[in-house]
Amino acid sequence: MVNRRTVIAGNWKMFKTVSEAENYAVKFLAEVKGIQDLDIVLCAPFTALYPLKNKLEESNVHLGAQNMSWADQGAYTGEISAQMILDVACAYVILGHSERREMFGETDEGINKKVLKALAAGLTPILCVGENLNTREEGKAAEWVRSQVIHALTGILREDLSRIVIAYEPIWAIGTGRTASSQDAQEMCVSIRTTLNGLMGSEAEKVPILYGGSVKAENIAELLTEPDVDGALVGGASLDPLSFVKLVHNAASVFARVKGV
Ligand code: PEP
Q1: What are the C-alpha distances in Å from 186 to residues 26, 170, 223, 242?
Q2: b/e string for 126-139 if b means 16 or more Cβ within 10 A?
Q3: How far apart are alpha carbons 109 and 103 in whole angstroms?
Q4: Are 35 and 252 in contact (CB under 8 A)?
Q5: In the 8-state DSSP scheme, what is residue 1?
Q6: Cβ distance 126 to 64 under 8 Å?
Q7: Cα-to-centroid distance, 136 and ligand 1 (Å)
Q8: Which residues are marked as active site?
């Protein structure tokens, strides 16, 4: 059995000024220091990345961006490159979040270009996939997500697969308070792994697959006891430092009890 890393990533979306981000970091770091069994990530708005770099240096908390360009540099007004986010010490970048797909016209093709660029730059993409409620009710969720995964990973090298994190985020569960059942999450994580296995064989075992969608301190434990749910991407419940601390501690205690080596 492969022991995959457990990843708990907070997605702050378009919240927090520089001073709010700095205050958060001070409170959060004090409570999570010493946790080594989880990869803890804060995905902050671009403007907060540099100040957070200074706060998170030499801590056990990693920094992530929420988007980046597929271009290296040039006349792309309003875009931010992989090198720019690396320069402020990001290790992760969320790509293909449903809010970007739905509100900012991101396509499978563009997301694929971003995944390839992030990998080439040495970043870990957190690739988001997930179906809307109609697709789920039509019984086509697995097929939809499979197609998103295949498109996003077109052209990646086998040895790069283990550097990717995938987040299954059903759109109907994001910010709605309606969580997928832990069985639904487990089923889709298995289905994603089967797709990865079809593409890259046994390398698929190394890919952490997270669940996202109204995850809170109260439901993280149940989700993480599923064998194929390797962590969570957390929006709303990551905004308050102490709530997120609680969630991280609950995740760490499941790791120790169920998934520990
Ligand atoms: C997200 O934005 O990725 C997310 C899962 O949001 P929430 O936890 O608020 O549903």
Answers
A1: 34, 13, 8, 27
A2: bbbbbbeeebbeee
A3: 16
A4: yes
A5: -
A6: yes
A7: 18
A8: 97, 169
The CA-CA-CA angle for residues 146, 185, 2, to 5°, reads 80
Q: What domains are defined for the chain? A: 6-259 (3.20.20.70)
Q: How far is the CA of 10 from the centre of ligand 1 (A)?
A: 8
Compute the distance between CA of residue 56 and CA of residue 156 in angstroms, rounded to an integer: 30
Confirm or reject: Cβ of 234 under 6 Å from ligand 1. yes
To test the pocket of ligand 1, the residue of 8, 11, 66, 95 to mutate (highest count of ligand atoms within 8 Å of its CB) is 11
DSSP annotation of 239 reads: S
Q: Is the CB of 170 under 6 A from ligand 1?
A: no
Q: What is the pLDDT along the chain (261 residues), one digit of tens a residue?
A: 567 999 999 999 999 999 999 999 999 999 999 999 999 999 999 999 999 999 999 999 999 999 999 999 999 999 999 999 999 999 999 999 999 999 999 999 999 999 999 999 999 999 999 999 999 999 999 999 999 999 999 999 999 999 999 999 999 999 888 888 999 999 999 999 999 999 999 999 999 999 999 999 999 999 999 999 999 999 999 999 999 999 999 999 987 666 543
The Cα–Cα gap between 96 and 152 comes to 9
pTM exceeding the 0.85 threshold for the entire prediction: yes
DSSP secondary-structure letter at 162? G
d(CA 92, CA 123): 5
Interhelix angle 241-254/18-32, rounded to 10 degrees, is 30
Q: Is the CB of residue 164 less than 8 Å from the CB of residue 124?
A: yes
